[in-house]
Design goal:
The chain is an all-alpha fold. The protein is built from eight helices and no strands. About 65% of the residues lie in helices and about 0% in strands. It is globular.
Length: about 160
């Protein structure tokens, strides 16, 4: 499969892509653990069917020390015993925040209460931004039909050098 378009070939799209990637680096300085961020981004990317992002976040999670077993269980996290309560809260928020059109109420009060039980104001806000951000990245990659499979851990950070 070949991408429909190279977003780094046009003057404006290159500037936007680099700024978008630069904004993503802010998550690295957040209080959310890298492993949790990768699990959330992986789950959103699975839901949206973004091969490039599934590839990226699986490999970045492994580089961060995440086990392959837990990564294999992300798609079925509700039935899995390998995730902590805070991880489960973040994954529930990720799913509900991604599947907005599937639920009349969007993110349920129950999910939000569980998120607030485990995450402070800054962390909860960061989770919201992370979920919105990865949904946007998924959409760009899906529209451009960017294939997955060739990503190597650390490539995204090198893009900004």
């Amino acid at each position: 499969m070949e991408a429909r378009i190279n977003l780094l070939a046009g003057a404006t799209s290159t500037k936007l892509a680099k700024r978008f990637a630069g904004a993503a680096m802010i998550f690295e300085t957040s209080a959310l653990p890298r492993e949790l961020r990768e699990l959330v981004q992986l789950r959103v990317s699975q839901i949206n069917g973004c091969a490039a992002c599934v590839d990226m976040h699986t490999k970045e999670a492994v580089a961060a020390g995440e086990s392959e077993h837990r990564l294999n269980m992300v798609a079925v996290w509700r039935e899995a015993t390998v995730f902590t309560e805070p991880e489960r809260a973040a994954l529930a928020l990720a799913e509900e925040g991604t599947r907005l059109a599937d639920a009349f109420e969007g993110v349920s009060d129950e999910t939000w209460a569980t998120v607030r039980k485990h995450f402070d104001e800054d962390q909860a806000g960061t989770l919201i931004c992370l979920i919105a951000f990865i949904n946007a990245a998924n959409r760009m990659n899906i529209i451009a039909r960017v294939p997955g499979g060739d990503y190597q851990a650390g490539m995204a950070a090198k893009f900004l050098e």
